[in-house]
From TrEMBL:
InterPro entries: Asp_de-COase-like_dom_sf, MoPterin_dinucl-bd_dom, Mopterin_OxRdtase, Mopterin_OxRdtase_4Fe-4S_dom, Prok_Mopterin_Oxidored, YoaE_C. Keywords: Iron, Iron-sulfur, Metal-binding. Residues 10-68 form the 4Fe-4S Mo/W bis-MGD-type domain. This is Dehydrogenase. SMART domains: Molybdop_Fe4S4. It comes from the Bacteria. Belongs to the prokaryotic molybdopterin-containing oxidoreductase family. GO terms for molecular function: iron-sulfur cluster binding; metal ion binding; molybdopterin cofactor binding; oxidoreductase activity.
Length: 704
């Protein structure tokens, strides 16, 4: 009889996915006796994750133990981008960074230093501690515009706050409309609950997107729009609702600001009008309008695709308004959901050092990093140059728009850059100092969902390599060298930060979460569905948004004012063509959509993800390919005023004529000429509060 000691048995750890995804999945992690992790699974007893996670996170061990992981601090030994490095001690590396910051400040003032970060981890401590150093030292501010602004702004223009029906209610809906998100690839849990509704209730799933993607293939009704035309579909659907009696007049009389004005405005927004704009047929629009009009329990799941077009705020508001016209909010399994970000109310004042904020310090737009680093006066707010940077949790040389400007800026001889990273990304390759960073199972942190309703603890589960350090460590060590470590918030452990934040927020402490793993913060039904009134002062949903006056989740400081062509924003929901419309010189519209096996630039370093994605390609409709003399596998050149690149063509019916889709944020070096798809994307700030319109590009195509 072979008896195995319990000391050698595998155990299970519990944590949360740290990546830039609304799902924030609760995870179960296999922990081996040798201190290594194995497979990850979705937590079965978390009611939103429900045991399901994406394949790329399930195989996270491939990333954690990747042979190319950064393990030692490095100093540049040759020219920028040359790829020659020498190992350096942690103390020497941190000394060099601090000295460079002091030198930049002496020459050009504190604003010459720009700490730059984003969502490589969504952990509150490891992501946001960099802000405490920024504020304490009066370094240039960071306006984080690249991901959420357009969608968040459009949503709160209607509701007044960023919350909605419990996303688990999709499972009890009679119709789930998945609009502007390829959920199979990017938010798999949306499909878990939508498919449950179809299986258990016979619910219909409608998918609205710009191409025939994996989510579209799961749909009972799929609507493929021209990019940036979502508002036209929403307006025509509301037109039909008023025309055919689906509009809930009693509900609107109680809960909306100007239903009569909206109805009058929509008189000429017919299905034929929308068909000409969207590329849908009149029959498709009528069928969609009838389905959602006749189905009271319709759940509109509105995704982050709305953030990728210059008219995205208007499009989000129009799609959201549809739920109000139909009165869908009244029903369990009905209403419109985008994000629950406003329900958690975490007090991060100490963590982020908000007591040190100086309103006179300039704010620089994350999305315009190329313009900032190449000396654009407007991007710099007409102040001095940026000559020193610390970068954590992001890879702007790959992910930021106007990639040629970004790279040009990073190659400046007078710019000092320190990058704290897990791999030698294309941003790290252009740095002066590179520091190795921990991964999420190697440190404590705390998470909250946007696409769901849980706060979750992410405790340290395994020991990191000896030479690797946390983001928090780097911030505190620099604070020591820069003379601010004595200020409140510095010198605390991750656990202390979490406990202080939770106490200030009126939430249970670290120990509670260590035992319970998560806390469900979903508001009650009436609050979530706005049955006590919407979050504007008069309790009314806004069909007539105040684009500049309404508070928004990520509104620029007053000193910056509004962004983009605010005067063009409509009084009521409408299609506005502030997008890059195709023209004679640029007859195609290009969307740079997410790939299933990458998450922004993360996972592009793992062999399995790369193998599954194949190579960078652009999808082209067969009719367009025939007119250009292109067959599948050919190399084509895409271009616009920002630049051009060569890429392989995939000829497919998945895209409509005149539309191109390039899936996945491949590393620049994976492309034929070493330049990635963001050569073609723009950084002009959309109205009203900025953003980055990655799916909104006019281009030409030539056979190479």
């Amino acid at each position: 009889m072979n008896i195995v000691s319990s000391a050698f048995k595998q155990s299970t750890g519990h944590t949360a996915c740290p990546h830039d995804c609304p799902s924030t999945c609760a995870l179960e992690v296999d922990l081996a006796p040798d201190g290594r992790i194995g497979r990850m699974r979705g937590a079965r007893d978390n009611s939103y994750t429900a045991g399901v996670i994406c394949a790329k996170v399930a195989r996270y061990a491939e990333r954690l133990y990747h042979p190319d992981r950064l393990l030692k601090p490095k100093r540049r030994a040759g020219a920028k981008g040359e790829g020659r490095w020498q190992d350096v001690s942690w103390d020497d590396a941190l000394d060099e960074i601090a000295n460079a910051f002091v030198k930049a400040e002496a020459a050009h003032g504190t604003e010459a230093v720009w700490p730059y970060f984003y969502a490589g981890t969504m952990g509150q401590v490891q992501r946001d501690s960099i802000e405490r150093l920024r504020h304490a030292k009066k370094y240039s501010g960071f306006f984080g515009s690249i991901c959420t602004n357009l969608a968040w702004t459009g949503y709160v223009m209607g509701t007044g706050t960023l919350r909605g029906p419990d996303p688990r209610e999709m499972a009890v809906s009679d119709c789930v409309v998945i609009w502007g998100t390829n959920a199979v690839a990017t938010q798999v849990n949306v499909m878990t609950h939508a498919v449950a509704a179809r299986k258990n209730r016979g619910a219909k799933i409608v998918v609205i997107d710009v191409y025939d993607n994996p989510t579209m293939k799961q749909a009972d009704m799929g609507l493929i729009l021209r990019p940036g035309t979502d508002a036209a579909l929403a307006c025509a659907t509301m037109h039909v609702a008023f025309r055919d009696g689906y509009a809930d007049s009693a509900y609107m009389a109680k809960f909306a600001d100007d239903p009569a004005g909206l109805e009058a405005h929509l008189k000429d927004k017919t299905p034929q009008w929308a068909a000409d704009i969207t590329g849908l047929s009149v029959e498709e629009i009528e069928a969609f309008a009838k389905l959602v009009g006749a189905t009271k329990k319709t759940f509109f799941r509105l995704g982050y695709g709305f953030t990728r077009s210059r008219n995205g705020a208007v499009s989000m508001h129009a799609a959201l308004s549809l739920a109000t016209v139909l009165g869908s909010w009244q029903y369990e399994g009905g209403g419109a959901f985008h994000s629950n970000s406003d329900i958690f109310k975490l007090n991060k004042a100490e963590l982020m050092g908000t007591a040190f904020v100086d309103p006179d310090i300039r704010m620089l737009d994350q999305s315009q990093i190329g313009r900032v680093l190449t000396g654009d006066a407007e991007a710099l707010r007409h102040r001095g140059p940026v000559t020193a940077m610390l970068i954590q949790n992001t890879n702007p040389v790959n992910v930021a728009p106007e990639q040629r400007l970004v790279k040009q800026g990073f190659l400046r001889d007078d710019l000092f850059v320190a990058v704290h990273e897990q791999f030698m990304t294309e941003t790290a390759e252009l740095a002066d100092i590179v520091l190795p960073a921990t991964m999420f199972v190697e440190h404590d942190d705390f998470y909250r969902g946007g696409g769901q309703s849980h706060m979750l603890l992410g405790p340290k589960l395994v020991e990191p390599p000896e030479t690797v350090r946390t983001n928090l460590f780097v911030i505190d060590e620099l604070a020591k060298r820069l003379g601010v470590v004595h200020l409140p918030g510095f010198g605390l452990s991750e656990r202390e930060h979490i406990d202080h934040m939770l106490a200030a927020s009126g939430r249970p402490d670290f120990s509670f979460f260590a035992e319970e793993k998560w806390l469900d913060c979903q508001p009650g039904f009436e609050e979530a569905h706005y049955l006590n009134g919407f979050a504007h002062p008069d309790g009314k949903f806004r069909f007539r948004p105040d684009w500049e006056g309404t508070p928004a989740p990520n509104k620029p400081p007053k000193v910056l004012g509004s962004f983009g062509p605010v005067a063009d924003l409509p009084m009521f929901p409408d299609q506005i063509n502030v997008i890059e419309l195709a023209d004679a010189e640029h007859p195609f519209r290009l969307a740079t959509s997410p790939a299933r096996n990458f998450l922004n630039s993360t996972f592009a370093e793992t062999k399995t993800s790369r193998d599954k994605e194949g190579r960078p390609q652009v999808m082209i409709n067969p009719a367009d390919a025939a007119s250009l003399g292109i067959v599948s596998g050919d190399v084509v050149t895409l271009g616009n005023r920002r630049g051009s690149l060569r890429i392989h063509a995939e000829i497919t019916q998945a895209v409509k004529p005149g539309v191109l889709v390039a899936e996945g944020l491949w590393p620049n070096k994976a492309h034929l000429d070493g330049e990635g798809i963001n050569v073609l994307t723009g950084a002009d700030a959309p109205a009203p509060h900025g953003g980055a319109a990655f799916h909104d590009n006019k281009v030409w195509v030539k056979a190479s």
